[in-house]
Amino acid sequence: MRPRRLEEFIGQHHILGEGKLLRRAIEADRISSLILWGPPGTGKTTLARVIANATRCEFETLNAVLAGVKEIREVVARARSRLEGALLSPPRRTILFVDEVHRFNKAQQDALLPHVENGTIIFVGATTENPYFEVNKALLSRSRIFELKSLTAGDLREICLAALADAERGCGRTGVDLEPDGLDHIVRLAAGDARNALNALELAVETTPQDDSGRIRIPLSVAEESIQRRALLYDKDGDVHYDTISAFIKSLRGSDPDAALFWMARMIRAGEDPRFIARRMVIFASEDVGMADPMSLVIATAAARAVEYVGLPECQFNLSQACIHLSTSPKSNSTMAYFDAVKAVEQEYRDEVPNHLKDASRDKKGLGHGEGYRYPHAYRGHWVSQQYLPSALEGRYFYQPGELGFERQIRERLEKQRARQREDLRSRIARYASEAEAERIAGAAGVPRRESRPDCGSVRGDAPEGESRG
Fold first, then answer.
1. Is 159 within the bounds of a domain?
2. 21 with 140, same domain?
3. Kind and range of the H or E element at 125?
4. Within this chain, do residues 254 and 381 fall inside the same structural domain, yes or no?
5. Domain ends where: 147, 181, 216?
6. Is position 462 within any domain?
7. Helices (H), 270-347
8. What's the pTM?
9. Per-position DSSP letters for 98-124, written without gaps between them
10. Residues 56 and 132 in one domain
């Protein structure tokens, strides 16, 4: 049932629809080197043969796994002879179709490249791997890439019905009645793969005897036997791996537990290492949930530990619990504050540790290290305003708490503390500068302007009763 003409080709309308570039090039016989990239059973080899049939070029095929440099040189020699008119008259160009082109090694590509570049050969490659990562850059730069997508349910249905009706190459001469439910089942489990659907249909027809009227009737039960549970397209190091984990993380971030569970189930069902999924959830718990729900990290870490301790299949319960918790938790990415601090360390920080924060256990008497430090537990609320950042960074805020979940409480408390710190900073600046100079320094440090100056001699902390505020 492989299509022979462009009119028979079903699917891939985004590159073969009316007016599309590839269709125009085929119809005008102006094909240049190209790479067809897509999942199995989407028509890469078929399209290459359709191109060969639609043009006036000779068609040669190689498999990148089986062919070596010798075979490539033989194809090139024949292609050169055709161009010179030695094999055919008038002269004709040659299309070389290379299946699994991502398997081409450097020696094979070096043997082919000059002849692609000088036009001796029109190169058409097919691959299930991302050519931008797997194909030699020199060959890639000489080829146009067309991505083929998994066939839709409508495409597969049309392909199956065409096979049932075709008397020359299909089952039309036999007479087959396929129940609608059976066709739906084959289409659904074929998962966008035309080869998978046609193989199942062929198996169902060949294993079902004719009835008294001479027709083959295929009920749902036979269709179910002919195409077993779908084999999910998944490669642990390729595009599908990265695309699926990306969909999983984005579903968690978007607070959609149903989508997150679906993508996680797809990964596990396809054989993904559950430890990889657990590690990504541990990262997500801090990166995207963070302080809005601090327990998320505990739950994600516990799930990761359970994966190691329990293993499959039982650890799916633990992964499911963590997945649901993370996707339904309030979200905050305020932990990104750390990277703002890193940037400040790398680009701005030059001061040493403020004296009152230095270790006082070694040289307090000689150098006065630690002198002036206020012990927060000695104050009401276990907090007192004092300088913690280096002087050049004082007044800089890296952490910006969100407004969801537990972080709302942190935000309210931190706003009060930061307001007190700004007042304290203004007071300390004013001790050593004129009012105008204090305003300038405070502005540089990000401290809002005050209408009136505080008492410069007082410390604005809440010390326990009877303890000096000075």
1. yes
2. yes
3. strand 121-127
4. no
5. 147
6. no
7. 274-284, 295-310, 315-328, 337-347
8. 0.59
9. EETGGG--HHHHHHHHHHHHTTSEEEE
10. yes
